[in-house]
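## retry 2 of 3
previous attempt timed out at serialization; input unchanged, resubmitting
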Amino acid sequence: NDEPTFYTIKGIHNLMLENNFLFSFDDLFDGKELDEEEIELLNEIFNELKKMNKLKGTFDKGTLTFSSNDVLFAKDYNTCLFEFEKNVNKYIQKFDLEFQKIKKILTKQNETIFPQEIKTIQNTINRINSKYGFWRDGLDAFILRANMELLKKQGLSVKKYNKLKKEAFKTEDEIKSFEDDIEVYELMKGFNNWTKLFDELELKYPNIIFYQKRLIKNPNDKVSKEKLENLLISLNLKI
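## retry succeeded, writing output
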């Protein structure tokens, strides 16, 4: 749906409060480039929510990213894990949404891929590549803060925990480390797999277009067909 979306101030209030664990202004409005006037308005709304104590945390003016302090006061380990999983999945959904746009173009059967479609592919990749570094920084910061606070509740500093871990003084069951949690590891692995996929797409999608053109000209070109097949499989584009 390419129809423009309009937001009321109340609607923006609600968006910020719904995403009150971690968000950037850019994330709140997927696919929209914010101008200075819009950023200024968002700042005003954000500052109003902070004054009302509805948002508590730190704000990075460089990346326009808010990170909540709520993690520091999470009631239990599972609360932290749930919040972390929710946010990783939010980003994975964004990766997948953009990936499906690219896939639809690159898997056209016996049809020419037009310059405008190539531009769409590159713009989509650029949009994701410009964001995922900020997303990962936010997730990494959450892991560090959650780990520090949860170890503190167990009477340990990160330094002390790392020392005990090296000495194998306590079993993993006795000490809960957010950073070393297998679920956290798997969630970040899934996130990083998406970043690698988009990096690979940027490098290899021109080759897909090249071999598709060759096959349109000569459907019996077995070498091009095999190379195209291998590319589609390696980039998870095989239908």
